[in-house]
Amino acid sequence: MGRLFGTDGVRGKANADLTPELALAIAVAAAHTLAESDRSHAPLAVVGRDPRASGEMLEAAVVAGLASAGANVLRVGVLPTPGVAFLVGETKADLGVMLSASHNPMPDNGIKLFAAGGHKLPDEVEMRIEAAIEANAATAWDRPTGAGIGRVHDLLDGADHYVQHLVGSVPHRLDGLKVVVDCANGAAADIAPVAYKEAGAEVIAIHAEPDGLNINDGCGSTHLDVIRAAVVEHGAHLGLAHDGDADRCHAVTADGEEVDGDQIMAILALAMREAGTLTDDTLVATVMSNLGLRLAMSREGIRLVETRVGDRYVLEELRASGLALGGEQSGHIIVPAYATTGDGVLTGLHLMSRMAATGRSLADLASVVTKLPQVLVNVPVGDRTVGATAPAVVAAAERAEAELGETGRVLLRPSGTEPLVRVMVEAASEETAREVAERIAAEVRLASPA
Fold first, then answer.
1. For residues 47 and 224, what is the distance between their CA atoms, to the nearest angstrom?
2. Beta strands in 8-167, from DSSP E residues, in sequence order
3. How many Cβ atoms from other residues are within 10 Å of residue 234's Cβ?
4. Which of 45, 127, 136, 327 could bridge 333 with an S-S bond, Cβ 3.0-4.6 Å?
5. How crowded is residue 378: how many other Cβ atoms within 10 Å of its Cβ?
6. In 10 A of CB 303, how many CB atoms?
7. Residues classed as catalytic
8. Taken in order 141, 146, 147, 150, is the CA torsion positive or negative?
9. Whole-prediction pTM value?
10. How far, in Å, CA of 403 to CA of 219, rounded?
């Protein structure tokens, strides 16, 4: 069996790569692995999903697998990923399962796992689950019978508890703000408009009618053109765009200009430092964050700690160092005081709260970060490790870094799930960034032809 887990769970085309049989096997192995430390009670699992059609099929398989392993199951239905993580903690469950492929198109689906407390799994635990799947396939595992089989119940008020938690976290009400929210026809279609309204904003919701097939279809955080136009049309103060499972948030200004995760992190970091809640005046971001964020935080006297790509690595650093804010350029923002994973709706609430508290526009707040042009080239390779570490590639990257000096940088990263090497270059101009990126990409292709 190849490596199942990528940077954010298991993903693939539903019923082709990610089959009900595989979903059941993952559920059984997860129950055995995540609930093995305490056998004094039947394990409890929370299961949620986004609205894509294949989620119904995969939910049935996951629930069957968990129950067959002796775990009791609370189904919470369609809910954002951070809502499922929140309910894992609230119900004191042993594990959680979210069925979603996030921003991926509808034919795909995925399985995200949470440990007790609603935390994403470290690599070591994912490897143990994969080993358990192989062991269970090779040798029949002991199945409980009779009263030992898990029971299944629906948690009907889970969404209400989650909305109350979100609204209760807001430091300043949003009265007077008009926001357009793009729900991506996804898991936030009901949750986001309600939460923003209850916090005081006037809300115009678009792409909030999921039918199981239209999730992320030309909408949401990866397709901002529609929300840009809607914000201008409605004269809104801002727009917020979520992805299919609402763990991301991107924003647009009143003029329709994009505000990405780096800028949102900067805005929240300054607000939290002012409130005295930014622990050690430190922000955690990944190596993919724009150099403009680093320069802005240095200028403002805020330390920036870098991690690998993936919000779970950001969270691991936040937990290990007891820090209060972190995230990714892609819009995964984590505020550990209120969430155990990236939460797009929570992010939107706190971003608008800062606007309401200061009376400043989103464009004004976001201007703290001047983004440098960033070019990303995905290079198909035969061996992604060789492609990223070959001496000629490393030498080309070092020469480029020396050329760019303090006005740019180079990042080489093998993909975690595809036969690609990602070459990212930042420079003072897009022309320079592209020329340098293509030069290094050529060396990657020579080192490991696809």
1. 30
2. 10-13, 44-49, 72-78, 95-99, 108-115, 119-120, 152-154
3. 15
4. 327
5. 13
6. 13
7. 102
8. positive
9. 0.91
10. 39
